[in-house]
Write a structure and sequence with these properties.
- The structure holds 2 protein chains of 2 kinds.
- Chain A is mainly β.
- Chain A is 11% helix and 30% strand.
- Chain A has helices at residues 50-57, 89-92; strands at residues 27-29, 38-44, 64-70, 76-80, 83-87, 95-99.
- In chain A, a hairpin with a 2-residue loop joins strand 4 (76-80) and strand 5.
- Among the domains of chain B are: 4-165, P-loop containing nucleotide triphosphate hydrolases (Rossmann fold, 3-Layer(aba) Sandwich); 179-274, Helix Hairpins (Orthogonal Bundle); 553-658, no CATH class; 663-789, no CATH class.
- Helices cover 67% and strands 6% of the residues of chain B.
- Chain B is built from 33 helices and 10 strands.
- In chain B, helix 3 (95-108) packs across helix 11.
- The longest helix of chain B has 39 residues, at 296-334.
- Chain B is elongated, with a radius of gyration of 33 Å.
- Classes of the chains: A mainly beta, B alpha/beta.
- Chains A and B meet through helix 1, strand 4 and strand 5 of A and helix 3, helix 11, helix 12, helix 16 and strand 10 of B.
């Protein structure tokens, strides 16, 4: 009876097509993460001393951050420890985050 | 009893440290003298309660790692100079991030006082601090301050001096980095204690152990420079690393960073409450506009346009005033010598010093205004957003987003622009940006364009031509950057990580201080190296003097004077000299005003507006004539038949003399020597000498060209000069001149600044000669191609 699937579920809503961004344990690159939700930093890929730079800004494993503003393929503005930090796209590819579901409700 | 303590101020950028420093030291501040330090340390003095306090403003840093110059300078100052107490200025509204630096300062073991600054903002945001408890948990005294209002400053200083005297306790609680790390640190510290490490003096061995575990580059360097890490230590270190590697997946420096934040959040959770949730809301709302992908960039362009228009509109009147001032000064000093006397000293002072340095100082007001505008953008927080917007573009060229800020300044003047490259953390980014900045056509080149463009191009092409020149500069900068990045400066782009401070209304005093700092640097450069080179250039263009001239100028001067005297005698027989003076002044004023209006409104001969104006002034002269016809015609005779020919003749003689002197001088001979290089670009010897003059400061180009074409200092100077240019050259050459001026060797002030900022003559000369060579190649190609294709060759 339903001839075409078109990614609609029973209620007619589109599934957002994930490009395999989230792996099985729910971790993803910061560059691909959604804005406006609490994210937990799980690791920072090493390279060009970036992790100490990020650490001094408060971005290190275990920290809860949130993307405040982003554009496609461009720099990202994060909220970290109450401050606004802007990072370039390249940096966003080096930070791995997971969704933080049990963060404090805002 | 005048004891003296040294107090160092540390803190994050944007924490209000500078404001507090200024409050503490007021006008009693200067740049500290620390050789070999590339980041300047400001110092000041404050008298408090009979004590003389030396206050040092350390660079604003987020941390004390070895990754940036600022951090190293701050750290090394503490290690080498052991201040009696450090005040860490903290933006209380972002406490947890700011304390990261505080913790590292505590690790160094120097007595510490924390200033919870911007406490008014923190209160407004709903933060409540249990200060006594926090102070106890951390083990250091804490003082609340509001730097911008001056609140708490006295208490802060009193606490600091109390700590320095040993009356108030500041002993950071030894904290734990976690059991495994603690053990590792202890063992390594123990191994270090056994060694002789005088170069670290009284620095806690635990700190060194921490640094070694963090793989701190500078620490490793220090050990390398002294024969490497001692064996015992190396062994313990390796063991510790191995054990930690087995226990944890994260590298040790991350573990340590995590531990620090752990300590901080531990203390914060006990002593800090936060009632209002959503902070930053106002800033965020503004950001939706300013960082908006669609309107962010246009807004940015509008801002930049505003900055420049304002700068030039308010700055230009000053240029005129200062030029008059220096002209007056020069004339005044010349007057100290008897009329017509030839004195090397006089020439040195008037032409060399006042001419050279004055030419650079004339731009000071314009530069100050530009800096004021930029300081406003920075202090308000907008600049960070602008760098954010520009990052993508800059990244594609191979530069950091923040690079655009110094490049922007470069459109005003390269000297402060190069100074501005300090905001880039990566030395490679700094260097590339510095090398390329001269291509941002600075304001000194404008007089050259303003001379050449109207001389060779019709009205409707003039605007586009100017724009074209600027555009070429930018395009070349992009190309050159890419070239440099793919050859000499290979490597990954610096990661873009930047704090976006909340928007703030800048304080007036803050703006003045920030812009004056940069202006003072410009002044200092003018006062030192430019002065030296101005003198050298003056010497090279004046000496050696020809033993005799081709014409008998002395006799000619005497002859001209005699004619003048004779004619004046005749005239004085018909009218009284005093009344004549009055009438002459009257007529001259009218004519001068007419000339000025013509220039100001840029009226062309024959246009209706021109004729209307001419009519008006002719009528005014006519009124004078009616008053006293005899006197009037005598005055006109004087002006047109006596004074004018006399002055023209003197000009001719003087220019002839200086032209010959120039030819005979070192500079002249040098230009003669390189003439074969000038020809392919379409240039001749006269342009060449003007170029040499332009080395001192670009503005000199026009003056020098005036000299070689025997065009005097009279009001219609540039008109006459333009006509001479038209007679001798063509639009293609005109364009090539501008092209060469745009690209070639920057002025010596820039050279000096590059040397100062890069710390080596090598890069400065590389920039100097590199740009000149590129300029030569491109101009030659353009000229040759243009000639062949018949462009602009009338």
């Amino acid at each position: 009876m339903f001839k075409r699937n078109n990614n609609r579920n029973f209620f007619g809503h589109h599934h957002h097509i994930h490009h395999h961004k989230a792996s099985k344990d729910g971790s993803m690159l910061l560059a691909d993460a959604p804005a406006g939700v609490p994210l937990k930093v799980s690791s920072v890929t090493c390279g060009c001393g970036i992790h100490s730079r990020l650490a001094s800004m408060g971005i290190l494993p275990g920290e809860i951050i949130e993307i405040v503003h982003r554009e496609n393929g461009g720099p990202i503005v994060l909220e970290v420890k109450g401050t606004r930090i802007a990072i370039g796209r390249g940096v966003g590819l080096k930070v791995i985050v997971t969704r933080e579901n049990n963060a404090d409700e805002r | 009893m005048d004891t003296s303590f040294t107090i160092a101020l540390a803190g994050n950028p944007n924490s209000g440290k500078t404001t507090i420093f200024n409050r503490l030291t007021g006008a009693h501040q200067h740049v500290g003298n620390y050789p070999g330090v590339t980041v300047e340390l400001k110092e000041g003095v404050r008298r408090q309660n009979g004590l003389s306090l030396r206050i040092v403003d350390l660079p604003g840093t987020y941390s004390l790692t070895a990754s940036s110059n600022e951090e190293l300078v701050a750290r090394n100052f503490i290690i080498e100079h052991r201040p009696d107490v450090i005040i860490d200025i903290i933006d209380a509204s972002t406490l947890e991030r700011q304390l990261y630096l505080a913790v590292q300062l505590m690790e160094l073991g120097v007595p510490l006082v924390l200033a919870f600054n911007m406490s008014d903002v923190a209160e407004h945001e709903g933060f409540q601090f249990d200060i006594p408890l926090l102070s106890e948990l951390l083990g250091v005294p804490i003082v609340s301050t509001v730097g911008s209002k001056g609140e708490g400053i006295d208490e802060l200083i009193d606490t600091a001096t109390g700590v320095a005297r040993g009356e108030i306790e500041s002993s950071p609680k030894p904290f734990s980095y976690g059991r495994d790390l603690d053990k590792a640190i202890e063992r390594i510290a123990g191994a270090l204690e056994k060694e002789e490490l005088e170069f670290y003096g009284a620095i806690p061995r635990k700190w060194i152990a921490l640094k070694l575990l963090e793989n701190d580059a500078r620490t490793l360097e220090r050990f390398e420079g002294r024969g490497g890490i001692p064996e015992g230590v190396e062994k313990t270190l390796a063991e510790a690393r191995q054990r930690l590697g087995q226990l944890y997946s994260d590298p040790t420096d991350i573990l340590i960073a995590e531990a620090r934040y752990g300590i901080i959040s531990g203390a914060a959770s006990e002593a800090v409450t936060h009632t209002i949730e959503r902070r930053h809301s106002f800033s965020d709302r503004l950001d939706t506009i300013f960082i908006n992908p669609v309107i962010g960039m246009p807004i940015f362009l509008v801002m930049m346009y505003l900055v420049f228009t304002l700068t030039f509109r308010f700055g230009n009147p000053f240029i005129g005033i200062l030029e008059s001032f220096f002209g007056w000064l020069g004339a005044g000093i010349s007057g100290l010598w008897p009329e017509g006397a030839e004195s090397p000293l006089k020439s040195l002072i008037v032409d060399g010093i006042i001419g050279g340095v004055g030419g650079v100082l004339v731009f000071l007001p314009t530069i100050l205004i530009l800096f004021l505008a930029i300081a406003f953008l920075e202090d308000s927080g907008y600049m960070a957003r602008a760098a954010f917007i520009m990052d993508r573009l800059m990244h594609r060229i191979g530069l950091h987003g923040k690079s655009f800020i110094p490049m922007l300044i470069g459109f005003g003047c390269s000297v402060p622009a190069i100074m501005g490259t300090r905001i880039l953390e990566n030395p490679r980014d700094r260097l590339v940006t510095t090398l390329v900045i001269p291509l941002m056509s600075c304001s000194a080149r404008l007089p050259i364009y303003a001379l050449i463009i109207p001389a060779f191009f019709p009205q409707h092409l003039q605007g586009p031509m100017l724009w074209l020149i600027y555009f070429i500069g930018i395009v070349l900068a992009v190309l050159l950057t890419r070239l440099l990045r793919s050859t000499l400066f290979k490597g990954e782009s610096t990661p873009f990580v930047m704090e976006l401070p909340p928007y703030r209304i800048p304080t007036f005093s803050g703006l003045l201080i920030h812009s004056w700092e940069r202006g003072a640097m410009y002044l200092r450069k003018a006062g030192t190296l430019i002065l030296a080179i101005s003198i050298i250039l003056w010497w090279a263009t004046s000496y050696p003097k020809p033993p005799e001239y081709s014409e008998d100028y002395e006799d000619q001067i005497v002859a001209a004077e005699e004619i003048y005297e004779t004619r004046m005698e005749e005239l004085s027989a018909t009218v009284g000299m005093d009344e004549l003076d009055e009438m002459v002044d009257g007529i001259s004023d009218i004519r001068a005003e007419f000339s000025r209006k013509i220039n100001e409104y840029r009226l062309e001969e024959g246009t209706p507006e021109y004729l209307v104006l001419k009519n008006e002034y002719e009528e005014r002269e006519g009124a004078l004539e009616e008053e006293n016809q005899v006197l009037y015609s005598a005055a006109v005779t004087y002006i047109e038949d006596i004074r004018a020919p006399y002055e023209t003749e003197l000009e001719r003689i003087r220019s002839g003399m200086s032209e010959e002197e120039l030819t005979y001088s070192i500079a002249g001979r040098f230009v003669n020597f390189i003439e074969p290089l000038l020809k392919p670009m379409g240039f001749d010897w006269k342009i060449g000498t003007a170029m040499i003059g332009a080395l001192a400061a670009k503005e000199v180009f026009v003056a020098q060209l005036g000299i070689v074409y025997s065009v005097g200092e009279s009001e219609s100077g540039s008109e006459t000069l333009r006509r001479k240019l038209q007679e001798n050259y063509n639009p293609l050459i005109g364009f090539c001149i501008m092209l060469y001026v745009l690209i070639s060797a920057p002025c010596i002030a820039t050279l000096a600044m590059t040397r100062a900022e890069t710390g080596s003559w090598g890069w400065a000369l590389f920039q100097f000669f590199g740009l000149t060579v590129i300029a030569w190649i491109i101009t030659t190609i353009v000229y040759q191609a243009g000639s062949v294709l018949g462009w602009g060759v009338t």
